[in-house]
Amino acid sequence: MNCRQTIPAHLRYTIEDFNRQFPNDDACFEHLREQRFPDGMAYCATCKGERQHHRVKGRPVYACDECLTQISPMAGTIFEHSSTSLRLWYYAMYLMASTRCGISAKQIQRETGVTYKTAWRMFRQIRSLLSETDMQLEGSAVEIDETYVGGKRKNRHGSRGMRGRDNDEKTPVFGMVERGGKGRVLAYVTPDAKAATLFPIIEEKILPNTIVYSDEYSTYDRLATPKNGYDHRRIKHAQKIYVMGDVHTQTIEGFWSLIKRGIGGVYHSVSRKYLQTYLNEYSFRYNRRDQGNLIFNAFLKRVAERADLPPVVADHERKPLLLEPF
Ligand SMILES: [Zn+2]
Predict the structure, then answer these.
(1) 97 Cα to the center of ligand 1, angstroms
(2) Shared domain check, 117 and 14
(3) pTM (two decimals)
(4) Is residue 93 included in any domain, yes or no?
C-alpha cells in the first residue's frame, strides 16, 4: 500500500504552506485564540459574561477589556501544561494529518530534537482528540468485521476464547464501515468477539433496516433475527468465496490492512492499552480522506472543540513560550 497519495492541487497543504501560515509560536497562538475566542470575544469569569479581550504585551494571555482578568487560549487544551513550543505542537499535528500510514514519535524526535518521550507524549495527546464518539453510521449498507491486532495469537475465531491478558495475545478489534455515501469507519478495541460484546455496539451505531454485510462468523447469526431488523447478508470465507456481487467485506478488510501495515510498519507494536487511540487516529484520517492535507484543519478544530470551556482564568504564571522557530 502506498503511504504517499496523490492529492488534487486544491486539497494540498505543503510544508511551505505550513511554514508560511505558522512561521513562529505567535502565529500559532493567534490562530488558537481565533479558534477559541473569535475576534477576541470570550467569556469573562469575573464579569460573568462575554467581553472583548486584548492581548497582554509580552505574555501568551489575553485580558478582559473591562476588568483585566486574564485568560489563555491554551487553558483547557492539550497544550495547557506543556513546555513544548506551540509551533512544535502544530507541526506534530501537521505531520500526523499529512500521512496515510502513520507517523512515528521517532521521526519528530529526529526532525526537531525533542526527546523521544516528549514526542511520544505529544502524539498521545493529539490522538486523544480524535475519537468519533458521536458518530452514527448512515447509508443503506454497512460492512462489519472483527480482527485481531498485535501479539502472536493466530487463531482468528479461536474456540478457546481470550484467556487472560497476556501481551503476547492479539487484541480483538471490531469495525464497521459505511458502504457508499460517506464511507466512514468506526473501529473499537473489544474485550472479545462474542455476541454479547459486539451487539450493543452494532445496535448503537447501525440504524435498523440497514443491509449488513459480514462473513460467516457465528457471532453474527443474531443479525438476522427480526428483533434487530437488519437485512443480513454474509459471505462464506471458509469456502474461499470472498466476493459475490455486492456481498463482500472488502472495504473493512482494506481498512484492517491499512492499520496493520501502519501499526506494524510505523509503530512496530502497540500495547492493548493504547490501541484504541491508534484506531481513532487511523479512523479520523480515513473518514476525512477526501479532504487531502486539509485534514490538518480538522485536527486544529478538534483542539478547540475538545477543550474545557470556558477558558479558565489564567491565574498562575505560565512558562513563556519559545519564540525561536525550531
Ligand atoms: Zn471581565
Answers:
(1) 37
(2) yes
(3) 0.85
(4) yes
Q: Is residue 317 part of a domain?
A: no
Which element (helix H / strand E) includes 148? strand 141-149
Question: How many domains would you assign to the chain?
Answer: 2
Clarify whether residues 48 and 103 are in a common domain: yes
Assess contact for 213 and 237: CB atoms under 8 A. Answer: no
28-42, 87-101, 198-212, 229-243: range with lowest mean pLDDT: 229-243
CA 122 to centroid of ligand 1, rounded, Å: 33
C-alpha 29 – ligand 1 centre gap (Å): 21
Instruction: Examine residue 239 and state whether it is found in any structural domain, yes or no.
Output: yes
> How far, in Å, is the centroid of ligand 1 from the Cα of 39?
16
CA–CA dist 122, 102 (Å, integer)? 14
What distance in angstroms lies between residue 40's CA and the mean position of ligand 1's atoms?
A: 12
Instruction: Give the mean model confidence (pLDDT) for residues 213-222.
Output: 89
Report the chain's mean pLDDT, rounded to a whole number.
Answer: 84
Residue 72 Cα to ligand 1 midpoint, Å, equals 14
Q: Report pLDDT digits (tens) over 248-271.
A: 889 999 999 999 888 877 666 777
Please list the residues that pair with 52 across neighbouring strands.
41
- Same structural domain for residues 97 and 189? no
- Residue in the structure block whose three cell numbers are 454474509: 234
Q: Are residues 25 and 118 in the same domain?
A: yes
Segment 158-177 shows an average pLDDT of: 65
Domain with 122 in it: 9-131+299-305
Residue 267 belongs to domain with CATH number: 3.30.420.10
- The answer to whether 74 and 28 are in contact (CB under 8 A) is no
Query: Cα separation of 277 and 65, whole Å?
Result: 40
Estimate to the nearest angstrom the gap between the alpha carbon of 90 and the chain centroid.
15
Percent of the chain predicted with pLDDT > 90: 53
Q: How far does the centroid of ligand 1 lie from the alpha carbon of residue 42, in Å?
A: 9
In a domain, 208, yes or no: yes
